[in-house]
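Hello again, I could really use a second opinion on something today. I owe you a coffee for this, so here goes:
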Amino acid sequence: MTRPGWLERPALSPLVRRRLLTALPTLFIVVTLTFLLVRIAPGGPFRSERAVPEAVRENMEVRYGLDRSLPVQYVRFWGSVLTGRLGPSFQHPERSAARVLWEGAGPSLVLGISALFIALLLGLGGGTAAAIWPRGRPWISAAALAALAVPVFVLGPLLIRVFAVGLGWLPAGLWGEPEHLVLPALTLGIPVGGAAARFWRAALEEELDTPSCLAARARGLGPLATVRKHAAVRSLPLLLNYLGPLAAGLVTGSVVVEKVFGIPGMGRYFVDSALARDYPVVIGATLAYAVVLLAVHTAADLAHVRLDPRLRKEHADWIGLEKQDRARRRALRQAEAARKAELNAGRKTASSSDPDREAALRALEEDREEGGKR
């Protein structure tokens, strides 16, 4: 008998269902607010510093449906969202907004995964070292705080000045070769790694003070072995729960990093489209980022439930109550249906048995009369 996978466990299906139920209104609110904000902002896609003839501007607005009222444009945009095209891009008339974002999704995904790897490497390594090395803890904490405090639009040019212009080890921009990824990934991963290091150090320090870890140290287990065998395992669910804010930091930082290093990703298209008032691309990018963040939060919650027995038991108990409630409602519906069927059958029997009863009574009276004559 094969054991079902952890994604097929019944304890996880209600969590996914609840996440989906909350994700749909969240996406609706995000798209609606973005639509209203980009339309309220001053300027327009065809109102630039260069003088554009009024007739040309009106023709372009008619072509893209901007001459309609705002509610009509809103309904039409939702129709384009449901079809998956998001409407035509104002900056790239030959391509739809979905095609523009799809072309930028690959570089953004590679950059995000690389930065996440660097952030986890720095965060787990720095946090572990700060938790088990008291003498180096102030230096590591100061480095993590400095990494967290420096914004990416300052860190990026600083790394370019040192490693590209000064030392000449790495290229300052472009995209397509592995060396082009190093500086952007470091720029995006270092601040997030500083935040992860502070979080991981606090989680390990709290876990190292528990009786089980103190007993392991008393048995002669070293600090690093205690972290590896006890503290890290118990702190891992907290780290998975922290992946949501971690992913949010990567998403917000990637918008600036892609613009600084000239990476043809979604963040760069988002910034360029926001400056040019390319409404479909701006709203589509916002929707894509919201979907990514919701997916990361859901995956982190699923992994957290999988690794934490207390949450798994809590969800299992909740599912048991839900199943009992569904069974009770099903039994009530079946009892109501049986009662209605019985009433209908009783009415039919009563209506069909009345003539038979009268005929039987007449036959009985006739038999009695014949017996009396005899």
